[in-house]
Amino acid sequence: MPIQSSNIDARSVSNTLLAEPAAPAASAVPRFDTIDLLRGLAILGVVLLHARIFLSSAGYEVGKGLPQWLRYLVFNQGGNGVSAFFAVSGFLITLVSVRRFGSLRALSLGAFYRISFARIAPALAVLLLVLSLLHFSGLPLFRIKATQGSLWHVLFAALTFQLNWFEAVHGWLPPNWTVLWSLSVEEMFYLFFPLLCVLLMRQRWTRPIFLSLLCALVLFGPFARTPWYTKNEIWSYQSYLGNLDNVALGCLFGLLAHRMCRGARIRSSRWPLCFQVVGSALMLFIAEWRWPQVILGWHIKHALGRSGLDVTLLGLGACLVMLGSVLREKKGTLWSAPVRWLGRYSYEVYLTHEFVVIAALSAFLRQAHRGPVAPWVFVTVLFSGMLGYFVSRLISEPANRFLRGAPVPAQLRN
Fold it and tell me: pTM here?
């Protein structure tokens, strides 16, 4: 339901979020350890969910010895992880753009598209090449069914950011292809995001329109996840409008973070920590769905799930955590370092982890006398992170710097 306040009008909110700084920001956006931790937890949830799905498809139930609530929390967070990624993506692309160009009204279309292409395209191009070769090899877990169309149809859908729509029409593709649906959602948003910035941010009277469009996406997102919007199960999960609410929410909080960072008083207050605590509690509340029914929250979450609001609230929690992280600029602790490391390479891990899931867990299932599955799941997570790291080091970062004309650091020249 909409949040109402008699003390805040729409114009004041618009001015707060969209007001531009007097001069371009000189400093680049640093890495925020808490955001890397959030991304690490998100990609961990994705890898563990896909490991569980792969084992379940072979008739093997993972985590049987765990309490039901813990088993659900560990192995059923992939969808929540993707939703968190959408919020993180919107938050960072907005905050980085504002600080890089000085303001959204000064955003350069050529620079924005070039930087985005340099970051995303190299690893994606290599992945599509490898998947194409594996399709022609005829391996069952990599071959596209003839009833779904040709390889060229799938490649066209992936390169034009409509793989999510393609799967809604033709059914699920092999796992390594399916992960690209979320990239289709993000890139379709960022295809139009800079255009809207240029068209609507140059004039003061059009800036509230920009904010209104982002708010409209946030408000419509929950509806797009309900049966009233579509009866297609895949489309209800992978549609543009059903996922862009968290991207738009991230954009709004990115603008808010940039504005609030200019106030020393709020940065030194307890509010940033409160944002992180409330955001973390909200995310945990949504993530742990199967609390016992005796807890009142279960009934609330059941209603939230049926209305599609659970995903938006998870994104809101992620945005609050990121807002507090940017304001506090607090370094991460030693215990969180492995997860933060995973978060640094989350894009490459996301694109490639299904190769490790298939290889490692197939080896486990082929054993005549299977031992506990937990070590194999750990190995799957570990090697997924290592593969993502090497793809980043050997492909993404060198190509990113080359395409952007940036100097290559000494550690990448060796």
Answer: 0.90
**Tokens 């959030």, residue located:** 38
Beta-carbon contacts of residue 127 (< 8 Å; ≥ 6 apart): 176, 351, 352
Q: Are 270 and 189 in contact (CB under 8 A)?
A: no
Q: What is the pLDDT of residue 407?
A: 58
H or E, element range at 217: helix 207-220
Q: Taking Cα atoms as reference points, which of 127, 175, 128, 169 lies closest to residue 147?
A: 169
Residue with tokens 């890397």: 36
In this structure, is the dihedral angle defined by the CA atoms of residues 135, 141, 146 and 149, taken in order, positive or negative?
A: negative
Q: Which helix (H) or strand (E) holds 307?
A: helix 296-307
φ, ψ of residue 2 to 5 degrees: the values are: -65, 145
Rounded CA separation 317/328 (Å): 17
Q: For residue 370, what pLDDT is reported? A: 81
Write down the residue that tokens 């609330």 correspond to.
Answer: 300
pLDDT at 302: 77
Ordered by start, the domain boundaries in the chain are 26-406
Contacts of 167 (CB under 8 A, 6+ apart): 173, 178, 181, 234, 238
What confidence score (pLDDT) does residue 291 get?
A: 54
* Joined tokens for residue 376: 């194999």
Q: Secondary structure of 82-93 in the HEC alphabet?
A: HHHHHHHHHHHH
> How confident is the chain (414 residues) per 10-residue block, as mean pLDDT?
37 43 47 94 97 92 85 93 97 94 92 94 97 94 93 96 96 96 96 94 92 96 94 94 97 95 87 96 86 59 86 97 94 93 97 97 87 92 98 96 70 43
Q: What are phi and psi of 142, to 5 degrees?
A: -125, -10
The dihedral built from the CA positions of residue 13, 14, 17 and 19, taken in this order, carries a sign that is negative
